């Protein structure tokens, strides 16, 4: 299927519009050319225009904003916290070896299940890895008396480090059981 045919599908456009609400988006046109920032899409016609311009991929920010068009370089953390309505956690597992990404992804999903996290998704990145996402609604409203919406990007780092530490020994064991050291070194 051609990229333009995929993005031209009504069901895909409807979902992209739903996910884009209150978020900054960025269209890519090949590997080197990116669309302007900040950018939003509100209508199917906005997406059709990007497709006609040769869009090859569509990226949606993790952060949710009151008005993404107010964003500009150099805003203070306090101003960003004031403008932010929330954020989703996105873990991007990307290895030169897809199998290693899959092993790691399985362990992260096991860790999420262990913590009774039900609202997550796993998606093939299209390259050598997976994206594991947890929507903002899955988080508590506050952590240590800090509104979770204001715990960005610290929350992403904290959760990612915690999960990394939690699965480290299991990941090492699985990799060493599956591959010889020479293969791992390559």
Q: What topology, given as strand order, has the largest sheet?
A: 2-1-3
**Residue share in helices?**
40-55%
Gap from first CA to last CA: 33 Å
Shape: globular
* Helix/strand structural class: alpha+beta
Question: What is the radius of gyration computed over CA atoms, rounded to a whole number of angstroms?
Answer: 19 Å
Main β sheet profile: 3 strands, antiparallel
Average pLDDT score? 92
Strand-and-helix sequence, N→C?
HHEEHEEHEEHEEEEHH
- Strand percentage lies at 15-25%
Low-confidence region ranges: none
**How many β-strand runs?**
10
Number of helices: 7
Brief description of this entry?
By secondary structure, this protein is an alpha+beta fold. The protein is built from seven helices and ten strands.
Task: Provide tags for this entry.
three-stranded antiparallel beta sheet, single chain, 186 residues, alpha+beta, 7 helices
